Amino acid sequence: MPSPRSSRERRTGSGSSRLEFLSLVSQRSPGAPDSPSRRKEPGSSAAAPLPEEDCMKLNPSFLGIALSSLLAIDLWASKRLGVCAGEGSAWGSARPLMKVIEISGHGIPWLLGTFYGLCQSDSSAAREVLLNLLFALLLDLVLVAVVKGLVKRPRPTHNKMDMFVTISVDKYSFPSGHATRAALVCRFILRHLVLAVPLRVLVVLWALIVSVSRVMLGRHNMTDVLFGLLLGYALYSVVEHCWLSPLSAPALFALWSH
Ligand SMILES: CC(C)=CCC/C(C)=C/COP(=O)(O)O
Question: Transmembrane segments in this chain: where (predicted)?
Fold first, then answer.
């Protein structure tokens, strides 16, 4: 009886898995279905080699296993932490409070508030800071929409889609827009507002609570929120790098000078 190794060598003429795949294609009759029952020839002891895509599923890389395990842990833990996902959930009575926290990190109040402040500000220093905050908030909205549209990760199945004003890409969950905004605004405020230490601590706490509440409300998986925080943190550095000033953008500042 031929050994599996020698029969493979006869079929391919070499030990390379790429050549095995090519020889399988050349042996198969055109239009023949790719069913497992056809792969093993009757009377032959050695099974025909599997197509490449099946081999990849059977022998995933270390990175593939690590990523699938991380995603499985993420889904499992996020579901367990989604304790305010519905009125009937373990902490369902805290859901209204979580929704207030959700609105505190929503784009609309931040955009409207910044715009209002900009119209009301009478010092050029305040105008400069608020104009840059407006720019940062808009940049954040665009970036999150692009990443959500590219990744297209659905929201957790236990999420109720009853969010305050959303746009089309908000049906996707990666990354959390609230988390990016929380991290971005937190860094921005800490850098540009002169605040007493207790207030600085409150700002950081607010950003953390907004982020944690995304998972508790069932809106996001943990990885959406963690990536969102990293993205918002990094985005602040971009805003700082592209800082708008009366020198770099005189036309923009002329619009707001009274
Ligand atoms: C309509 C505007 C101006 C902003 C949408 C804000 C929003 C609903 C973001 C989604 O946040 P999550 O990704 O954290 O759920």
Answer: 130-151, 193-213, 233-256
**If you measure from the C-alpha of residue 56 to the centroid of ligand 1, how many angstroms do you get, rounded to a whole number?**
37
Residues in a beta bridge with 154: 172
**pTM score, two decimals?**
0.77
The tokens 């932490």 sit on which residue?
81
**What is the rounded distance in angstroms from the CA atom of residue 133 to the CA atom of residue 189?**
9
pLDDT digits (tens, 9 = 90+) for 9-56: 444 444 444 434 333 333 444 444 444 434 444 444 455 665 555 555
Q: What residue ranges line ligand 1, CB within 6 angstroms?
A: 106-108, 111, 141, 163, 165-167, 170, 176-178, 214, 219
Q: How many residues does the chain have?
A: 258
| Identity of residue 72 | A
CA 4 vs CA 8, 48, 51: distances in Å: 6, 10, 17
